[in-house]
């Protein structure tokens, strides 16, 4: 069974991916309750941390019920990254993760995230310095390469391991692909099958069904799956995958009452954590998946995603339960 540092994980663990404006404490709590084995924070700017920027600092909030939890940071400046490690350590996470995979332009243009895939030597030296600057296990999340012509992930993963990286999660696309096309897990399997690799290798990208997770485990032989988009507004995904692994059958989808309760709790936790305005706004993206597949639902969806007042949203939840409470979701 895989380990990250001294953290013992179950066989083929399911990890909640770090996602901007998604994997915050309320959502991480729901995913943890539904079977996520490791959860990661939203990615945090090292420059923001050392400037004490409010949004960056707020992302350091973690809670005992989430453990094991990793805090993910990104940056390209060695001094800033080392100073951010010291700040992150004060929050007492179980893992520090380095984001070498974010493809968005505002991150890449600064040489951070997937931008560092253009400079593998810097990627390795940053990792080595951060490993040497903390007693916590340091992990890396990255992509196959900058583009199709520069995929050297087998070599890159081995070099990161050799400087002390405790585990690596690899998204099966290049930066050039962004999130388009199909994720290619074959190069990730090549990393895992490298005889010199001994740290856990987790796959990421297009794990969107229990069957996909099973293929990642049995056909590609990876150590675990990092789940991103499939979990947004659907924290039950983790439990459904585990049930499928155990029985070969699909778990019955959550009932309307369970969906409304999860959405209600999600919104209330978000308001308690970040206030009314942000709590209402940043929970909106989850509602489409919480209530996916319901016919004649547009009126209620519009209420949930356009109202700035939580009272209106909570009222919409009540109306949904009253009108659609008997609706049956198909597997």
Number of helices: 14
What is the CATH architecture annotation of the largest domain? Alpha-Beta Barrel
Find the structural class using helix and strand composition.
Answer: alpha/beta
Overall average pLDDT:
93
Description:
It is a single chain. The chain is an alpha/beta fold. It contains 14 helices and ten strands. The protein has helices at 25-33, 46-50, 54-58, 78-89, 105-108, 120-131, 153-162, 186-193, 210-218, 237-247, 256-274, 276-290, 298-306, 310-324, and strands at 3-4, 7-8, 14-16, 38-45, 69-74, 95-100, 138-143, 168-171, 201-204, 224-227. The two termini are 30 Å apart.
Primary descriptors:
single chain; 331 residues; Non-ribosomal Peptide Synthetase Peptidyl Carrier Protein, Chain A; 2 domains; globular
Could you give the topology of this structure?
Elements: E1 3-4, E2 7-8, E3 14-16, H1 25-33, E4 38-45, H2 46-50, H3 54-58, E5 69-74, H4 78-89, E6 95-100, H5 105-108, H6 120-131, E7 138-143, H7 153-162, E8 168-171, H8 186-193, E9 201-204, H9 210-218, E10 224-227, H10 237-247, H11 256-274, H12 276-290, H13 298-306, H14 310-324
Helix pairs in contact: 1-11, 7-8, 9-10, 11-12, 11-14, 12-13, 13-14
């Amino acid at each position: 069974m895989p380990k990250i540092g001294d953290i013992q994980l179950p066989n083929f663990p399911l990890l909640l991916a770090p996602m901007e404006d998604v994997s915050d404490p309320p959502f991480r709590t729901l995913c943890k309750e539904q079977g996520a084995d490791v959860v990661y924070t939203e990615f945090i700017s090292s420059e923001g941390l050392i400037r004490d920027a409010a949004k960056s600092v707020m992302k350091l909030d973690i809670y005992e019920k989430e453990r094991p939890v990793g805090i993910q940071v990104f940056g390209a400046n060695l001094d800033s990254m080392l100073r951010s490690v010291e700040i992150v350590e004060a929050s007492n996470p179980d893992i520090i993760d380095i984001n070498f995979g974010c493809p968005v332009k505002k991150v890449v243009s600064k040489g951070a995230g997937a931008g560092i895939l253009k400079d593998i030597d810097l990627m390795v030296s940053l990792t080595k310095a951060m490993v040497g600057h903390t007693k916590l296990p340091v992990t890396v999340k990255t992509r196959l390469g900058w583009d199709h012509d520069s995929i050297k992930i087998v070599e890159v993963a081995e070099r990161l391991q050799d400087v002390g990286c405790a585990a690596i999660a690899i998204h099966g696309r290049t930066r050039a692909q962004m999130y388009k096309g199909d994720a290619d897990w074959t190069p990730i399997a090549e990393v895992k099958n490298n005889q010199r690799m001994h740290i856990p290798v987790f796959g990421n990208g297009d794990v969107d069904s229990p069957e996909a997770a099973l293929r990642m485990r049995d056909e590609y032989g990876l150590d675990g799956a990092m789940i991103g988009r499939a979990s947004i507004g659907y924290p039950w995904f983790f439990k459904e995958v585990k049930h499928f692994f155990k029985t070969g059958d699909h778990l019955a989808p959550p009932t309307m009452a369970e969906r409304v309760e999860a959405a209600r709790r999600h919104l209330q936790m978000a308001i308690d954590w970040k206030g009314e305005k942000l709590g209402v706004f940043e929970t909106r993206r989850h509602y489409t998946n919480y209530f996916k597949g319901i016919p004649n639902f547009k009126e209620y969806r519009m209420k949930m995603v356009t109202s700035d007042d939580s009272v209106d949203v909570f009222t919409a939840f009540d109306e949904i339960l009253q009108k659609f409470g008997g609706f049956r979701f198909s597997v």
